[in-house]
Amino acid sequence: MQRETLDTLREGVAVFGSDGRLRLYNSAFAAIWCLTPKLLDAEPHVDEVTAWCSLLYDAPEEWERTRAIVTSIVAERRSYDSQFDRPDGTVLACAALPLPDGGTLLTFSDITDSKRAERALIEKNEALETTDRLKSDFVSHVSYELRTPLNSMLGFAQMLAEPAFGTLNDKQREYVDDILSSGNTLRAIVDDILDLATIDAGSLRLQLAPVHVSSIIEAAKQGVEERLKQNDVRLDIEIEDGVDEVVADASRVTQILYNLLSNAIGFSEPNSVARLTCRRDGAMIAFSVADEGPGIPEDFQDTVFDRFESRTQGSRHRGAGLGLSIVKSLAELHGGTVTVESAPGQGSRFTVRLPLKQDMEAPETETDPMRAKQAG
Question: Is 16 within 8 Å of 106 (Cβ atoms)?
Answer without folding.
Answer: yes
